[in-house]
Amino acid sequence: MTLLYKAAGEVLGDEILPLNQLRDRYPDLYERHFRKYAARPHRVNTPVYPLDCTWGDVVFLSPVHPAPIFEALQQSGRIGPAVIDYWTLDADLLDPAVTCILLKRHDPEMRPQPPEDFIPYSPAAVAELAVPSERALHRLRNLNATEPLYPWADIPHVLHRGPIPVRLFRTPDGTEPR
What we know:
Helix 1 (19-25) packs antiparallel against helix 2. By secondary structure, the protein is an alpha+beta fold. The strands form four sheets. A four-stranded antiparallel sheet has the order 5-9-7-8, with no helix packed on it. A three-stranded antiparallel sheet has the order 1-6-11. It is 22% helix and 20% strand. Strand 3 and strand 4 form a beta hairpin.
């Protein structure tokens, strides 16, 4: 089984919702999630070309387990030991018609990525991207004190248009999140 990873978090209702749907259904939760875009609010309007939508219309998942990312950040001295709280999702459960992969190439100025950086979704493609690149880990290990802390800046993203039922996710101990 090929796994996808999602940071654990507060869930209201039975679905993990994209930011734009959170705004309508759960404004307080939307405000908390939107804060991470405070320095770059235009980012939520970034196009997701293959899905004919924007950044705010998708749920973000990672093909990379969070442990090596946070280990590299610890090596930089930017964070201390971290408890990583995440959920997993079987990659076979997502519909490729509403899912794509964005090959993230770190851009300190956070410019939108070109259409060719989006590739078709498949569990096989996810499996090929499951190990973070040495370039990404090197960047994280060598962050200086003034660089923005963007752990996922050059880690591929799996983007799913629309909500994903919570019942499809599992905690590290194999139970449904709640």
